[in-house]
Amino acid sequence: KSLSSVTIDSLRASLEKQEDFIVFSLIERARYPYNSFAYDPSFLGNQNCSFVELFVRETEAMEARFGRYQNPEELPFFPDYAQPPLAPPHRFPNILHPPGASVNVSRRIWDMYFNDLLPLFTKKADDRNYQQTVASDLICLQALSRRIHSGRFVAEIKFRDSPQNYIPAIQAKDSETLMKLLTFTSVEEAVVKRVFKKAEIFGQNVNLGKNNVKEAESKYKVEPSVAAKLYQEWVIPFTKQVEVGYLLRRLI
Ligand SMILES: O=C(O)C(=O)C[C@]1(C(=O)O)C=C[C@@H](O)C=C1
C-alpha cells in the first residue's frame, strides 16, 4: 500500500469490513453466559488481577514477541507488559504523524466493554467455561480497539485532504470546532443502520421446520439493537475522540 492509495473512501471501506468481524465476534461471545467470575479480581486468589486481565496481559506479551504491535494499526491494552519483538519488523507504511499515533483510548474501550456492553448481550449465568469466555472477550476487544483507533488514520487523511480547514482550530486547540469539522452525520447514520442489518442477517437463528423450533429461543444471537447501540453510543463517539486527539497533536 503506498501512501497515495489511502483515501477517505478506502478507509471507510476498511471500517465497513471491520463491522463484519465485530458483529461476528459479538455473536461468538454471546455463546457463553456472562460468567462473572472471569472478571472478579479476587477469583485467582492473591494475584489481585482478574482471570480476563491476566489472559489479556499474557496473550499480548506473547503476541508482542511475534511483532503484533509493530503494526501501527494494533495497540495493546497493557503496554507495560509488552515484550520486544523477536524478528525485525515488516515494513508497514508510515502514514501517521508520530505524536498523533500515540493517541490511545484503550482504557475507555476496556471499561465500556466490560461495564456497559457485555451485560447487554450475555445471559446472566455461569457455565464455568472461563477460558473460551475470555478468549472471545479478547477477540472483541481487539476488534473494537482496531476500529476505534482507525480514527488516527481517518484524521490524518482528512487533515491531508484539507489542511487549511483544520490548521486554525488545531492551533487554537479548539476541540469543539475540530469535532464539527470531522463529523459527517449522514455517514454515521448509514453506519449504524448497516450494523443493525448485519446483526439481523449474520445473527439470525436458523430453524429447519417445526420440529426444530425452540420456543424459548430468541430470533437473534445478538439483538440488532445492541449492535446498533454499540456503534451509536460508543464506537463512533470514541473514534471521533481519537480523531480529535490525533488532530490536536498533528502540528507538534
Ligand atoms: O467516515 C468518517 O469520516 C469517519 O470519521 C468515521 C466515522 C465513524 O466512526 O464511523 C466518524 C465520524 C464521522 O462523522 C463519520 C463516521
UniProtKB/TrEMBL annotation:
UniProt pathway annotation: Metabolic intermediate biosynthesis; prephenate biosynthesis; prephenate from chorismate: step 1/1
Per the UniProt entry, what is one GO biological process?
Answer: chorismate metabolic process
Catalysed reactions, semicolon-separated: chorismate = prephenate
Q: Where is the chain membrane-spanning?
A: none
Q: What is its EC number?
A: 5.4.99.5
Tell me which stretches of the chain form a coiled coil.
Answer: none
Query: Molecular function terms in GO for this entry?
Result: chorismate mutase activity
Q: Specify the protein name.
A: Chorismate mutase
Q: List the source organism.
A: Dendrobium nobile (Orchid)
> Source organism lineage?
Eukaryota, Viridiplantae, Streptophyta, Embryophyta, Tracheophyta
PROSITE patterns from the UniProt entry? CHORISMATE_MUT_3
Q: Name one GO cellular component term.
A: cytoplasm
Broadest EC class?
isomerase
